[in-house]
Amino acid sequence: MLVGLMTAAALAVGPSVVASPKHLQEGLDGVAAIGALAEVRDGGRVWRGSSGVAELGSSRKVPVAGRFRIGSVTKTFVATVVLRLVAERRLGLDDSVERWLPGVVPNGENITVRQLLNHTSGLYDFKDTLPMPPSPEFYALRYRTWTAPEQIERALAHPPVFEEPGSRYDYSNTNYLLVGEIIQKVTGRTYAEEIERRLIRPLHLHGTTLPGTSPYIKGPHPHGYLPKDGGMVDYTELNPTLFGAGGDMISTTRDLNRFFAALLGGRLLPAELLAEMKTPGTANGRYGLGLSWHDTTCKVRVYGNDGDALAYQAYSFATEDTRRQATVAVTPRLPVNPDDSVEAFLDRAFC
């Protein structure tokens, strides 16, 4: 079941989209997933489409305005809050972890906030302490409530993956669990409260929430699935404290495009801190302070982030001038990885 539309306002203004609606819909149909939805923006024009089904065993269309778990795209929101605190001189990128969380992290005096944000701390990833699907132990944790301190403790029971902080890039969700704790120490409010008051409300991101312990996705949404016992089990519901500050948010394609337009357009951070966000943690890297980038096949560089929330995957990127944007969310048919087919769609959107 396929859906494609151009809004009335979009049809009225701006140059034609980079790709035709038909070309974009064909690209979305080619994404390897149970269901997919996307929003592509080019100047004043907007294309929204969906493909596949919202729920296995039905012919119900994926809602084009549907909500989904955004996984590690959450990290860009968290990093933006940190950089706003830096702009307010309440926190320094080169402050040590030990300064804000004394006694929590071994060698914390030599690990900086910057190294947490750009994944060069070397700290062991909490995710790697957990059983993964399709193991029965994983499914038993579905509704468990986690706290950041216990997740951090589990991770730090393991030695760092390298000894010298800042010397290498190694993606670790533990970094952002710690950043969430630092935000609370600096502000007296949780990272979720700070994202809500600093980003969600001012930008009118009406479809974006930090769900806390609620396992539900409220409003229209596609169902997500994981492999189990040779088939697929509906895994739409889960306790999002599993992801915490590293990936617990729910959003829409519209809201993610709106957020990245504001961020990359310079409306959320001073120019020098946005430049810091785009600076890789290691030479020739593609990840800065909660922001990643890649070059399309037509050599257009796009900035944003992608996220994996088990039964949902999200991708949101924009050109540096924010004129062109594309956000895609999929419910993957695991173990097939949708990344390559999503990249092909993004090439259609940006090339």
Automatic annotation (TrEMBL):
UniProt source species: Kribbella sp. HUAS MG21
Q: Which UniProt keywords apply?
A: Hydrolase
Q: What is the name listed in the Swiss-Prot or TrEMBL entry for this protein? A: Serine hydrolase domain-containing protein
Q: Which SUPFAM superfamilies match?
A: beta-lactamase/transpeptidase-like (SSF56601)
Identify which top EC class this enzyme belongs to.
Answer: hydrolase
Report the superkingdom from the record. Bacteria
Q: What Enzyme Commission number(s) apply to this enzyme?
A: 3.1.1.103
> Is Hydrolase a UniProt keyword of this protein?
yes
Pfam families associated with the record: Beta-lactamase (PF00144)
